[in-house]
Amino acid sequence: MISVQQALQLIEQQTQKTSNTVTISVSEALGYVLAKDVFSPIDMPPFRQSAMDGYALGSVQETTYTLVNEVKAGDTEDPEIKEGQAIRIFTGAPVPSAAKTVVIQEKVEVSNHQITLQESTVPMANIREVGEQIKKGDTALSKDTKITPAGIGYLATLGVTEIEVYKKPTIAIITTGNELVAPGQPLSYGQIYESNSLMLVSALQKSGFSAVSTYKVSDNYEDTQALLEKTIADHDVILISGGISVGDYDFVGKALRNIGVEEVFYKVKQKPGKPLFYGKHKNKTIFALPGNPASSLSCFYIYVLPAILKLSGYSNYHLERGKGVANSNFTKKGERAAFLKAHNDHGQITILDAQASSMLRSFALANTLVYLPEDTTEVTIGDTIEIINLP
């Protein structure tokens, strides 16, 4: 059994950013990471652009100007303007090439096709120059940049329609257990509803991973090995829920060994989630998660999600960690490190009830995890504690 830090270090060492790339539409690129620099195909703005609603002036010396024309956004003509003349102009409209400045409408008085400035102006005021944001050929976004909604908007303003990104891994989720029944079906004595696959699919989708396939296998060795062989062949990351312990009907570990999966580690000195398995098969990543739902989700956030994000090209792939002030007392039993479901209210951390590995109620109310190292046994109100913010 290894420590939490050893487990994190081993995953870090074994996980490398994918070299596989794909060209996709900018409109579908949210959450992907750029595999190549993107260069601007145009100057932005591509013309002198008015930053305000107001008046373009043919000179800056006068106080009174004759109003001779109007330019609005989308106009394609370049109207003539002379000294002593003004053109009504609107935000985003092209500034006439002969105009010397733009004065905002709040600073003028209008009467009988004339405007009078209420205060002096200066050359080039309220004009966005050609290429003010970026010049044609300059780097718009650099390789390894994560694409955000703002990034999509930025690329769209430049007319970029496709980009090359790191390919996200395909993911398989396998649930094991004869006792599991799909929600909506009647329960017989000894059965429970299967929740882990839906929970993990949702967690993956929230983090931008939609290429997820789900499978269920009965507690049968031959079926377990056959399904594992198929999913390892067809997917990049395999998450197995349950069946990794040492019971008579836990066949996952034996099947993984027979397939030739290299065990990097099995069992972590933590609560919940002690029976966590991490292995590699060539370039495939295999996690066997505990079957208890809270254990499974804790291990997913601490170990699995960071590995998947790193595979996908992310540079910041661990959940955000910080400090908070304990708003409740807690006594940790045993010598294992603990991940406790908690609620973070502006740095005030309340450790929730129902911390058992089988209970999801507290997880459903939590927005952070409290991390207690092996050597910490007590949390007292007012203590500074380490937290891991959930997505």
Model description:
This protein has 391 residues and is of the alpha/beta class. It has four domains: 4-19 and 168-311, 3-Layer(aba) Sandwich (Molybdenum Cofactor Biosythetic Enzyme, Chain A); 30-43 and 134-166, Molybdopterin biosynthesis moea protein, domain 2 (Alpha-Beta Complex); 49-128, Molybdopterin biosynthesis moea protein, domain 3 (Molybdopterin biosynthesis moeA protein, domain 3), CATH 2.170.190; 321-389, MoeA, C-terminal, domain IV (Beta-clip). It has helices at residues 4-14, 149-157, 196-206, 221-234, 252-259, 293-311, 361-365; strands spanning 21-25, 38-39, 49-50, 54-57, 64-71, 85-89, 101-104, 108-111, 114-117, 127-128, 139-141, 162-166, 171-176, 180-181, 192-193, 212-217, 237-241, 262-266, 270-271, 277-281, 284-289, 321-326, 330-331, 337-345, 348-351, 368-372, 378-379, 384-389. The strands form eight sheets. Strands 7-4-6-5-9-8 form a six-stranded mixed sheet, with no helix packed on it. The chain has a six-stranded mixed sheet with strand order 16-13-17-21-20-18, sandwiched between helices. A five-stranded mixed β-barrel has the order 22-25-24-26-28. Strand 8 and strand 9 (114-117) form a beta hairpin. Helix 3 (196-206) packs parallel to helix 6 (293-311) and helix 4 crosses helix 5. The two termini are 28 Å apart. 38% of the residues are buried. The mean pLDDT is 95. Keywords: Magnesium, Metal-binding, Molybdenum, Molybdenum cofactor biosynthesis, Transferase.
Tally of helical runs: 7
Parts with pLDDT < 50 across at least 5 consecutive residues: none
Give the full name of the CATH homologous superfamily of the largest domain.
MoaB/Mog-like domain
Main β-sheet: number of strands, strand sense, barrel status? 6 strands, mixed
What CATH calls the topology of the largest domain is: Molybdenum Cofactor Biosythetic Enzyme, Chain A
* Number of structural units classed as domains: 4
Please give the radius of gyration in angstroms: 30 Å
